[in-house]
Amino acid sequence: MELGVSDRLVIFGISGDLAYKMTLPSLYRLERRGLLKVPILGVAATEWGPDGLAERARAAITENSDEPFDEKVFDALIARMSYIAGDFGDAALYTEVAKAIGDAEAPCFYLEIPPGLFAMVAKGLAGANLLGGRARLVVEKPFGHDLASADALAADLHQYVTEQQLFRIDHYLGKEPVQDLTYLRFGNSLFEPVWNRKYVRAIMITMAEEFGVEDRGSFYDAVGALRDVVQNHLLQVLALTGLEPPTGGSLSSRRLDFFRSVESVDPQHAIRGQYEGYQGIPGVAKDSTTETFVALKLILRSWRWSQVPVYIRAGKKLPGTATEIVVRLHEPPMASINKRMIGHTGHDDIVLRIGGDAGVGVSVRVKKPGSDKAEPEMLNLDFASALGETPTPYERLLTDAMNGNDMLFPSQDVIDETWRIVQPLIDAPPPVETYQPGTWGPAAAQQMTRHVGGWRIPMGIADA
Asked: Is there a contact between 435 and 225 (Cβ–Cβ < 8 Å)?
């Protein structure tokens, strides 16, 4: 059965930090763009007065939105919103929710609450007969903390909804530059012919953050870099970089096929690091072995990518903040012109930037004046200057969930594969090595890519 378009949006946890920073500003932007069509019900434990929701929404939008505040847009948003306070464990709350949404046939229930509460809320909704038909349930990551817990979470939720009704939000997949990966690949004759083992020497993904854990010690120490960004964000980005052309407009099966071709990581091909001073952060164990940096090598077993290594690194307190994918091509052979050999330096890289400076760069070798050498110059396209304003991730993801479009939402099969890939590092993690803030992690991580020319320093970041 096709889920179709939702006729209600119900947000559990609308009083929380995620709603304040992301959801409410995104709803405002959707209202401004004329894309919000349905009544919205907020549900949380916080007891607000009659104007509490409006006051909270105004503060969230003015603090977390760059564009000028428009009273007419805000009034239109508030006019479609209502609020119920209650205990998520109380069946009476769901009776109130059922009454509030009336005869809705395709409600969208968005749970921006801790994963430990997902099953409780799903059970309450099912008990009030709200999860039948074309209803859908949208949940936030993390989807477990390892393969076993991910499967247990899915089993809990599948008691109340089918897999088709379940939408798992990874906000990273809602980023416009991440979505651009498939369009760049399959919409340009320049790229697709060389996107294979014949031309590609290696794929390298870097997610660098200049800042540290700061005031998130208690959360981060139980998670670490592998679970925080690699198992979810960066593996999903890798899939979009390497999957086969989609058929019928769907990426879901192609993404699953790609992950099945990725071998589970060998702990001997991984480096874990922890920056100096991390253990002194409030909430962090004094003898913590949680990694704030991880670098690893992956092996792909597919026809397209056979013998092409993939390297991923991610960490905090690095020399700068950037996220990019480098597709490094094989070097061209030497050539002789006028009986003189043409030398070349650097690398032939296609660079896909998906951080704050989103864009694409292609290195082109040009002759250095007065010499017989060709040096690479980067041709850059900046998405912001070329394409203008882009939607926020939650604008896209909430709209897709309400429209029943699951393209950007990973299925349970995909979640299982991503956990399977990193599980060996969870079961037998190599020891953490200390690194100094402002460097690129442990020295061994720098050496990991030496056979393919070394890591590329992201644009705008000085070498360290």
From this structure: no
pLDDT, tens digit, for every residue of 4-22?
999 999 999 999 999 999 9
Q: Cα–Cα distance between 438 and 422 in angstroms, integer?
A: 27
**3-class DSSP state of 79:** helix
d(C-alpha 438, C-alpha 23), whole Å:
33
Q: Measuring CA to CA, which residue among 33, 34, 11 is closest to residue 23? A: 11
Q: How far apart are CA 254 and CA 359, in angstroms?
A: 24
For this structure, is 233 an active site residue? yes
Q: Residues spanned by CATH 3.40.50.720 within the chain? A: 8-169
Beta bridge partner(s), residue 268: none
Q: How many CB atoms lie within 10 A of CB 124?
A: 24
If one looks up domain 173-452 in CATH, what number appears?
3.30.360.10
For 128-172, where are the alpha helices, taking DSSP H only?
147-157
Q: Which CATH number fits domain 8-169: 3.30.70.970, 3.40.50.720, 3.30.230.70, 2.40.50.140?
A: 3.40.50.720
* Whole-angstrom distance, CA of residue 286 vs CA of residue 143: 28
Q: What does the H/E/C string look like for 294-348?
A: EEEEECECCCCCCCCCEEEEEEECCCCCEEEEEEEECCCCCEEECCEEEEECCCC
* Active-site residue, from 171, 233, 269, 344: 233
Overall average pLDDT of the 245-260 stretch:
84
- β pairing state of 81-85 and 136-140: unpaired
Model pLDDT, residue 262: 98
Task: For residue 79, give every residue at least 6 positions away whose Cβ sits within 8 Å of its Cβ, in sequence order, or none.
Answer: none
249, pLDDT greater than 60: no
Angle at alpha carbon of residue 311, lines to 294 and 290, rounded to 5°: 10
Q: Residue 11: what are its φ and ψ, rounded to 5°?
A: -110, 110
Write the CB contacts of 139 (distance below 8 Å, at least 6 apart in sequence). Answer: 111, 115, 118, 157, 166, 167, 168, 169
Exposure string (b/e) for 185-217, b if CB count within 10 Å is 16 or more? beeeeebeeebeeeebbbbbbbbbbeebbeeeb
